[in-house]
Amino acid sequence: MPRIATPSSIAAAPAAAQPMLQAVEKQLGVVPNLFRMVANSPAALDGYLGMMGALAKGRLPAPTRERIALAIAEINGCNYCLCAHTYLGKTLASLDDAEMTANRHGGSMDPKAAAAVRFAARIAQSRGHVAQDDIAAVRLAGYDDGEIVEIVQHIALNVWTNYINEVAQTEIDFPVVSARDAA
């Protein structure tokens, strides 16, 4: 059972959040529970949507962003995010099941993406305390400093959604997938 209320509709959300939720609905065709729950704080919803929008304009391609999201959700044991990003990985990024399994284990079948996902997993597991060798490996795979910054920012965004969903116990509204190590 959710521990933070999820407004039942856009109209039931705080007035300041309603235009943002309408924009989500226009873009996705639905308003997932995460967005409606976060709408309890219009400021938090604005920050979340702002960061998502900014990163969507970055240089990391959608499949790599979804791969990172899956790795981070697995590390943090967030079933909501695993379900959401498995769905998005299939529908938005055209990732197959084998690739998403590799992503959840901190890798990828694509060599360049594998370096980004390994780096992201290493950052998350070490809470940012990576070695020079970790930086060298992601650079060797073809990522520049700007893309490295974007990888870190994607980790931050995904850790936040993992944590808010775990705190809230957000009801899953995607096809269900479970984390290996979910608590």
From TrEMBL:
UniProt superkingdom: Bacteria
The protein's name in its UniProt record: Carboxymuconolactone decarboxylase family protein
